């Protein structure tokens, strides 16, 4: 066992090493109060800033023609397989589209569903030339649908002032384009309210 003098010398030497910034008087003051707080000097870690990956701007995407479909690819037969995949997607989304399913439940699912691959028909329009256009939706933008018809013609149909119908497994749903002017990604999070009457 250490003698008191040795113990005191050890404590003094230990405190001097542990607290190099404090003077001897301050260390002795700490010992008289019998409260010792050892200071720990840790190196400050410099946080590395994460670089955010920047995507293309809308102008760059237009200049690169990312959303344009080449004329040789504008064929109805090519996208029939996309339509089959869309039908399977809707059946899974609506749990099989059973005959006893409630129409408003299916309608609510379709309002938020992805429509790329759906076959739609313009049933009513303020512009008579749009009425009767039928085809597969290839692209959906905020204000327009791009539709490929059976005649292999790519049609750009505005949503405003048009009513569209789509049919799957005997269930016919109507889309009022004027109330549907949203991007597909925005539409999935929007809460649609039931309204009594809707005009073009």
Automatic annotation (TrEMBL):
<dbReference type="GO" id="GO:0033204">
    <property type="term" value="F:ribonuclease P RNA binding"/>
</dbReference>
<keyword id="KW-0819">tRNA processing</keyword>
<dbReference type="GO" id="GO:0001682">
    <property type="term" value="P:tRNA 5'-leader removal"/>
</dbReference>
<comment type="similarity">
    <text>Belongs to the eukaryotic/archaeal RNase P protein component 1 family.</text>
</comment>
<dbReference type="InterPro" id="IPR002730">
    <property type="entry name" value="Rpp29/RNP1"/>
</dbReference>
<dbReference type="GO" id="GO:0005730">
    <property type="term" value="C:nucleolus"/>
</dbReference>
<comment type="subunit">
    <text>Component of nuclear RNase P and RNase MRP ribonucleoproteins. RNase P consists of a catalytic RNA moiety and 10 different protein chains; POP1, POP4, POP5, POP7, RPP14, RPP21, RPP25, RPP30, RPP38 and RPP40. Within the RNase P complex, POP1, POP7 and RPP25 form the 'finger' subcomplex, POP5, RPP14, RPP40 and homodimeric RPP30 form the 'palm' subcomplex, and RPP21, POP4 and RPP38 form the 'wrist' subcomplex. All subunits of the RNase P complex interact with the catalytic RNA. Several subunits of RNase P are also part of the RNase MRP complex.</text>
</comment>
<protein>
    <recommendedName>
        <fullName>Ribonuclease P protein subunit p29</fullName>
    </recommendedName>
</protein>
<dbReference type="GO" id="GO:0006364">
    <property type="term" value="P:rRNA processing"/>
</dbReference>
<dbReference type="InterPro" id="IPR036980">
    <property type="entry name" value="RNase_P/MRP_Rpp29_sf"/>
</dbReference>
<keyword id="KW-0597">Phosphoprotein</keyword>
<dbReference type="Pfam" id="PF01868">
    <property type="entry name" value="RNase_P-MRP_p29"/>
</dbReference>
<dbReference type="GO" id="GO:0000172">
    <property type="term" value="C:ribonuclease MRP complex"/>
</dbReference>
<dbReference type="GO" id="GO:0030677">
    <property type="term" value="C:ribonuclease P complex"/>
</dbReference>
<dbReference type="InterPro" id="IPR016848">
    <property type="entry name" value="RNase_P/MRP_Rpp29-subunit"/>
</dbReference>
<dbReference type="InterPro" id="IPR023534">
    <property type="entry name" value="Rof/RNase_P-like"/>
</dbReference>
<keyword id="KW-0539">Nucleus</keyword>
<comment type="function">
    <text>Component of ribonuclease P, a ribonucleoprotein complex that generates mature tRNA molecules by cleaving their 5'-ends.</text>
</comment>
